[in-house]
Design goal:
Oligomer: single chain
Distance between the termini: 38 Å
Number of helices: 9
Largest sheet: 6 strands, mixed
Number of strands: 12
Length: 253
């Protein structure tokens, strides 16, 4: 469980988050909103990468200040949107997720290796174990990073636009992996760019605008409330495919 209460944060005196309160305990919460509304900053604060200017942060009922870096990394993992491609093989990158659990002299044991291989199998990158990350496509690398997070095996997972810039096949694979995390009982907070994907995968949608949360509810309830139309300046139309599955079309006002 993660709790952010009355959070204020900004950059160089410019406020970005204003009185943001968010609590998540299990399931997938997708954070959506216009560019610059504070979505990524919210995740950075939650990941302890940016110190808030006000408010409180708790993880599993304990203040963030109670956790050492190693303890915190056993409870929460974060996949940022922008990252360098490490000079490592797939296996080495996935094994990096086990680092918070390694004792002196930081050598992985049998259980660590088993967990890493299982994470690679679950994400479909097992056959690439010996390949360097630089030799992989963007979608393949993204699956490797998610395998690393599975190997880290934290109760809380933060994802910043995990499917953006990927082709549709890899986008669907990423959504499936997010669903698998939910089935494992993890709490997932994910910033999502594609509204239909967010509405499909989310148990709850957190809609942000100008540094504030303006709606936090089940996807259909957020749609029905009309806040998505107001925030994005669109009209939402409910559609259905040939199998009767609902999706939404967003039309510019």
């Amino acid at each position: 469980m993660i709790e952010l209460t009355h959070i204020h944060a900004g950059y160089e005196g410019k406020p970005v988050l204003e009185d943001v309160t968010l609590r998540a305990d299990g399931g997938v919460t997708c954070i959506i909103g216009p560019n610059g509304c504070g979505k990524s900053t919210l995740l950075k604060v939650a990941a302890r990468l940016k110190k808030p200017e006000g408010g409180s942060l708790r993880l599993n009922g304990r203040p963030y200040s109670d956790f050492s870096p190693r303890e915190f990394a056993r409870q929460l993992s974060f996949l940022p949107q922008i990252r360098d491609t490490a000079a490592a093989t797939v296996y080495q990158m996935v094994m990096h997720g086990r680092f918070p659990y390694l004792g002196f002299p930081r050598r992985p044991g049998k259980r660590d290796r088993q967990i890493a291989w299982q994470a690679m199998a679950d994400t479909g990158v097992e056959a690439m174990a010996d390949k360097p990350l630089a030799a992989l496509s963007g979608g393949e690398r993204q699956k490797v990073y998610l395998a690393m997070m599975l190997a880290q095996d934290t109760p809380v997972v933060l994802l910043d636009e995990p499917a953006t810039y990927l082709d549709i096949r890899h986008q669907l694979e990423i959504l499936n992996l997010m669903g698998n995390m939910r089935q494992r009982g993890k709490t997932v907070l994910a910033v999502m760019h594609d509204l239909n994907q967010a509405l499909e995968i989310a148990d709850r949608v957190c809609l942000m605008d100008a540094g504030r949360i303006v709606a936090l509810d089940a996807p259909k309830a957020v749609i029905a409330g009309g806040e998505i139309d107001r925030v994005f300046g669109v009209r939402t139309r409910r559609m259905a495919d040939e199998a009767g599955r609902e999706y939404y079309r967003f039309v510019k006002e």
